[in-house]
Amino acid sequence: MEKNVGKFDNSKKTYEAIIDLIKIDIMNGKIKPGQKLPPERELAKKFNVSRTSIREALRTLEILGVIKSVQGSGNYITGDVEKSLIESMSMMFLLQQIDSLEFYQFREALELKAAMLAVQNIDDEKIMKLEELVSEMAQSEDEADRSALDKQLHDTIAAASNNSMIIQILDILSEVISKDIKQRRSEILSDPDNIKRLQKIHEEMVYGLKQRDLQATYAAFTKHFDLIAEYLRTNQDY
Amino acid sequence: MEKNVGKFDNSKKTYEAIIDLIKIDIMNGKIKPGQKLPPERELAKKFNVSRTSIREALRTLEILGVIKSVQGSGNYITGDVEKSLIESMSMMFLLQQIDSLEFYQFREALELKAAMLAVQNIDDEKIMKLEELVSEMAQSEDEADRSALDKQLHDTIAAASNNSMIIQILDILSEVISKDIKQRRSEILSDPDNIKRLQKIHEEMVYGLKQRDLQATYAAFTKHFDLIAEYLRTNQDY
DNA sequence: TTAAATAATTGGTATGACCAATTTTGCGCA
DNA sequence: TGCGCAAAATTGGTCATACCAATTATTTAA
Q1: Do residues B197 and B66 touch, judged by C-beta distance below 8 A?
Q2: How confident is the model at residue A207, as a pLDDT?
Q3: pLDDT (tens digit, 9 = 90+) per residue, A138-177?
């Protein structure tokens, strides 16, 4: 059969051309999130290609989080892009062996920006929550608890940034290296000396946010990063 | 035929299980970047599934930048993860309509961190290059030239961060919204008043780096962001 | 009217065939 | 022997078809 994907590119592989066509339909609003795509057999007819090619295109769209295939039902447009970013970044690690230091620096960039935005956007309710978390942490005896509280603290601050992209990606970063982070968090949080220092830094962070003081918040976060970096340097067994 | 992907997961779709198996082979060092995978027909036999399923798995690995298929030759492991990140982020835009402000803030986070790292890592050669760029910009009459120089300036600073992950992602961000950025850059750089302000800010940035002065560099970059943000606010036609 | 049985739809997988690009083989000639 | 080109084999790309499995729609029976 003659390869004929509408009025489109013939240099690409068929499935790539199909992806483009479907993307265009999404951009033009012909297909919207939540909506169901035409059946595969129909798409095949429409684009005048085999169902195989359609399916190869759909597979990539699925891994990219654009669609979700449900056997017996259909292919649905979704907005689940996190999945693809997680996959991508995991692969980045797998293939390029990005070192932990670079990764943490990347994370710090987002955390810091989130904090700076939080200074401008945080409301009193969240401030209170932060203060509670910090005081809970001060009292907590259990290292696992402290670790959980620590995560909550950072998540809450990130959430206050009001930047959904940064929030999402910080979330993804946590997931990508969740094991690593969990372990290190608990390692750091099990040394009594570090606990005291971190507690103080956390208090400074929250105070900075409460005062809506950019400089103080920046300083506190920087201290926090330095502490982590110092830890990474002295424990570079990775 | 009985579905039997080695000793592995039966709840997933076949192609997903295959991906996992191949990933495992990569992690274990059985397959390394640059190397060729076994032929599809062979993989099918090895995993006891159809070539169709193998191919669906390979397609997703290809879009993720893990492999590259060459007709007549084979499937090769690559490290081209940028591609997948670009795809992912494009889709993020396509489906979630992240607004420009959030996107620029994300970008600022990385630029700022890159600058902070550059303060610690930049060498004299790069400093000289930056000074040249700034002085060229001052003299340039052509708006397209200024735009190109501006990009070079930012790229050079990012490069001095020595964090390849941040460099890569900044690169990707540029590509994802290259059209948008290009347009805005030139818009901003065509207003005489902005040109003067930006010139001054660029000088401050480079001076801060030259002095290895964190605070000064931070301040200069912040000013830069504010200028952009101000522009976005007063031109929110998007 | 409703609930269960049945049919139709639709994605998931498997085969086999053939095309197209590349790689390998082998033959013939210098 | 060694080189160069043609033929063959290999390998990914695409297609058609068949059948399975889950879902959805329809019909039937109580």
Answers
A1: no
A2: 96
A3: 888 887 888 889 899 999 999 999 998 899 889 878 877 6
CA B230 remoteness from chain centre? 25
Q: At what angle do helices A124-139 and A143-159 cross, to 10 degrees?
A: 170
What 3-state DSSP class applies to B11? coil
Average model confidence (pLDDT) for chain B?
85
Tokens representing residue A84 in the block:
């693809």
Chain A residues whose beta carbon lies within 8 Å of the beta carbon of residue B62: 60
Alpha-carbon distance of A143 to A159, in angstroms, equals 24
Query: pTM for the full model?
Result: 0.76
| Cβ separation A166–B105 shorter than 8 A | yes
Q: Which residue is nearest to nucleotide C14 (CA to C1')?
A: B50
CB proximity A172 to B under 8 Å: no
DSSP string, B93-106: HHHH---HHHHHHH
Number of residues assigned to chain B? 238
Within 7 Å of a protein beta carbon, the nucleotides of strand D are 10-18, 21-24
Structural domains in chain B? 14-80 (1.10.10.10), 84-235 (1.20.120.530)
Residue nearest to nucleotide C22 (CA to C1'): B72
The 10s digit of each residue's pLDDT in A205-232 is 999 999 999 999 999 999 999 988 888 7
Residue partners of B238: CB distance under 8 A and separation at least 6: B99, B100
